[in-house]
Amino acid sequence: MTAKGKTAIITGSTSGIGLGIAEALAGAGADVVLNSFTERDEDHALAASLAEKHGRHGGTVRYIRADMSKPDDCRALIDRAGACDILVNNAGIQHVAPIDEFPVAKWDAIVAVNMSSAFHTTAAALPMMRRAGWGRVINVASAHGMRASPYKAAYVAAKHGLVGMTKVVALETAQEPITVNAICPGYVLTPLVEAQIPDTMKEYGLSREEVVRDVLLKRQPSGEFATVEQIGGIALFLCSGVAAQITGAAISVDGGWTAL
Questions:
Q1: pTM for this predicted structure
Q2: CA–CA gap between residue 20 and residue 4 (Å, rounded)
Q3: pLDDT, tens digit, for every residue of 62-111?
Q4: Minimal CB count within 10 Å: which of 71, 72, 205, 222?
Q5: DSSP states of 113-138 as a string?
Q6: Residue 43 in contact with residue 14, Cβ under 8 Å?
Q7: C-alpha span between 82 and 7 (Å, rounded)
Q8: What is the DSSP letter of 100?
Q9: Active-site residue, 155 included
């Protein structure tokens, strides 16, 4: 599949799943916009590195700072990009606590970044897609968009909301050449997840293998992590012509978690 001539904006894309999707789209020739809330030399260097790596495919890669907790920043990201054929709403944060101890500020931030940001970016991007006569919106939700876990009230609520919004916008654009879908990963071995393993080992006195098997992948029947490359491949598939009639879907990539 080629994405040449298409501009793809991926929020929260300097690492993990977002970067994996950016790699896949850049490899298909898209003009890719990376995003995070920082403004560091490393951010622009990452964009330059991807551009060099995938330059033979004809696309460009640039970095635009925007804080996805701020509505104005969300909309400004789309405006600054100048075009948006493919929008990947991937930015997300997490906090774990019982609901009666859950900090209000953490609730507000998680809902803002994980759900409300997608509302703002999508609202800003759809007019561009309509003018271009083609568009793809891909929301990176979670298995927690369809299942609950204790102590994750804000995250589960936001991801359920994101899946619901995916369906609404799919219906609103159903008679246009625009599709809107959600990818719902289970546990993916990202740098963020990898960094949690040593602390969990210490906390429970477990080996790395035990933490992975009995804690992280306890609900994932396959017993294996999904990979960022797999998520990137699914995003690329959703941008292809053969996926033109897939809209309003929540695609599970969770090793059977939501089949239980």
A1: 0.96
A2: 18
A3: 999 999 999 999 999 999 999 999 999 999 999 999 999 999 999 999 99
A4: 205
A5: IIIIHHHHHHHHHHHHHHHHT-EEEE
A6: yes
A7: 9
A8: G
A9: yes
